[in-house]
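Dear Dr. H.,

I hope your travels went smoothly. While you were away I took the liberty of generating a structure for the chain from your last submission, since the lab meeting agenda had it listed for discussion. I wanted you to have the full record in hand beforehand rather than looking at slides cold. The sequence, exactly as received, is reproduced here:
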Amino acid sequence: MAFVPALISRDRGGMRRRGLVVLAVLVLAAAGVIAVRVATTTAGTPLTLATAPASTGDTICPLARLVPVTVGHLDGRLVFRTALGDELPLVWPHGYSARLVDGVGELLDASGSIVARDGDTLSGIGGGGDPFTICSPS
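The corresponding predicted structure, in token form, is as follows:
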């Protein structure tokens, strides 16, 4: 019987150390050390993206289709290239944005959802004009 309490006593010491480690992690999280990393990754670094001004009402959208383009980033901006490698200037709907997260460019819609990332090919996009202006989704 005397042997069992000794084992329990040693386990409590180990549990105490694990408890201190868990407590330390919780304190760091509460202090924002962990959250800062997550927030930085989520927010990323803004990239330049041409967008249309805010609409004041119904707009007419041409029904032209854009050739497929591949998303990339260069010199602090999001770029769109054809299969031949030519860069196309595009104007995205009001509210769209671009950011760089962990070295990867991302195109976001007005709600903040990711539309595309570096290397993705976008096709079937409607719009028109020069520069090509992407129609807002309905």
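Two observations you may find useful: DSSP finds two helices and eleven strands in the chain. The mean pLDDT is 74.

With kind regards,
E. W.
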